[in-house]
Specification:
By secondary structure, the protein is α+β, with helices and mostly antiparallel strands. The chain contains 10 helices and 25 strands.
Length: 477
């Protein structure tokens, strides 16, 4: 028997249960690294329960191996590995589960179960715990980690991204700064030391995925001056072995955005790979701290790729001697990034075959106030949530007159509003075309608001704006 919440599922099968977390909410909390967890019922020693109302979501928390169930808040419940959260519509089923598990825990206590002897799958380690463990290890074993974790003293690009050099004393950043040379290329001797897995030439692997939102802004990267060989290789691949005086810009360049948690300087480091083959630099430190947790929550075997601007020019000055040299190059890279919460949708895409509709201008839907029990899960504070909405053509009854064909918007299978009659007429043929192919039409949407009121905006192209080539590419499952 399955009890499915919105960030996980508890399944009961005989004398065992399986606890599985799923969805981007769970991934963002680091709850899906070791899935699923198999737990004998004899390991249940306590259970805590917070009921759901129309104003707030609920959760159920297990106490395992003799431990008491933790007392949680709405902010801590979402990241607790022994907790599954649920909406008001599922409250009755979880009340039944709670009552049953209370009986299981009481029976275990009455039987005098030795919890220490009952094996069960422990929770995985969260990202913050992994980072802290690395920092603790570096502190506890300074000699053992000095070469890998404490690179040689020297001048390196300031990772705050202000275009200066900053002095690393071999153990920590200092407050000594120097201007970044405009026309100098570092020699091999001045190159920074090994900087973790990504910098050891381990290229991005797996499937490249675009950002969920198509609202992107340019972000300059840092450290390009340390990757002259990469820019030489890129130029050669595009037939530019002799660069023109004005330099060369790579046409339609793309970049892989890859977290580098083993970086010797910053566990939040994010590396930039042009065309997925050439490491050319990093996001500035302050920017990387916002993106690293989101990038690590991507599905395993995938990495983010985005449009980029890559310019390569001549650099005819030798850093050591100040004399002219031949064949030197320098590069400048900026990447087009979504906002951190727009890398992937806040909720899961449908399990059924589906097609993401082309991005278009914003559409404000109506009737959200009638569906706050659903929207409350998504509208958490003032920050917008980028979500995957499904669109459906429905015949909506009217008090006076015949039903009207409108486009209904759903989140996780639950209705959250309708498009207006005028907008529905512009979009419904596209929605019907995809649905007739046996695929669920999915649109990018944004939810913004609070527990009391939320607004939903859908970004989808009008039918007349969709190119014929896109329509031909929609496959029947």
């Amino acid at each position: 028997m399955d009890f499915k919440g919105y960030n996980g599922t508890i399944s009961i099968d005989g004398d065992r249960m399986t606890l599985t977390h799923s969805g981007l909410v769970a991934k963002a909390g680091g709850l899906v690294r070791d899935q699923p967890r198999s737990i004998p019922l004899q390991a249940v020693s306590d259970v805590a329960f917070k009921d759901a109302s129309r104003m707030a979501n609920g959760w159920i928390t297990l106490g395992l191996g003799g431990a008491n169930a933790l007392s949680l808040t709405s902010s801590t419940a979402a990241s607790n590995p022994d907790t599954v959260m649920f909406r008001h519509k599922d409250a009755e089923r979880f009340r039944d589960l709670h009552r049953w598990l209370v009986g299981v825990a009481q029976k275990n206590l009455e039987l005098g179960i030795d919890f220490a002897g009952v094996a069960f799958d422990a929770a995985g380690v969260t990202r913050s715990e992994r980072i802290q463990a690395k920092l603790d290890s570096r502190t506890a074993n300074p000699d053992e980690n000095s070469a890998a974790m404490n690179p040689a003293a020297g001048w390196y690009p300031d990772t705050t991204g202000d275009g200066r050099l900053r002095y690393w004393d071999g153990a920590a950043w200092t407050d000594q700064f120097a201007p970044m040379p405009d026309r100098q290329t570092p020699t091999a001797a001045s190159m920074p030391p090994v900087r973790g897995k990504v910098a050891r030439d381990e290229r991005p692997f797996g499937r490249a995925v675009p950002p969920w939102t198509e609202k992107l802004v340019y972000q300059d990267i840092v450290g390009e001056s340390f990757h002259e060989d990469a820019f030489k290789a890129i130029a050669a691949e595009y037939g530019q072995r002799t660069l023109p005086d004005w330099g060369y810009e790579i046409p339609e360049a793309v970049a892989a955005i890859v977290p580098d948690p083993d970086n010797a300087f910053d566990p939040n480091a994010v590396a930039i790979w042009v065309e997925g083959r050439h490491l050319v630099g990093y996001l500035p430190r302050n920017v990387a701290s916002l993106y690293a947790p989101k990038l690590e929550a991507l599905e395993r075997g995938t990495y983010l790729h985005v449009p980029a601007r890559v310019w390569i020019g001549r650099d005819d000055w030798d850093q050591d001697t100040g004399a002219r040299k031949k064949g030197g190059v320098r590069g400048s890279v900026s990447v087009r990034l979504p906002e951190p919460d727009g890398i992937y949708p806040f909720n899961d895409l449908p399990d059924e075959p589906h097609t993401v509709l082309p991005w278009g201008r914003a559409v404000q839907i109506a009737g959200e106030e009638e569906h706050m029990d659903v929207l409350r899960t998504f509208a958490l504070g003032s920050d917008p949530r980028h979500v995957a909405a499904t669109l459906h053509v429905v015949d909506e009854a009217r008090k006076n007159g015949d039903p009207v064909r409108l486009v209904e918007v759903r989140l996780d299978g639950e209705r959250v509003g309708l498009m207006s009659k005028v907008t529905s007429e512009q979009i419904r043929d596209l929605v019907s075309f995809v649905a007739d192919k046996g695929r669920v039409p999915v649109a990018r949407a944004i939810v913004k608001g609070s527990d009391l009121r939320a607004d939903v905006t859908v970004h989808v192209a009008r039918t007349s704006d969709v190119p014929h080539k896109w329509l031909e590419a929609v496959d029947t499952p």
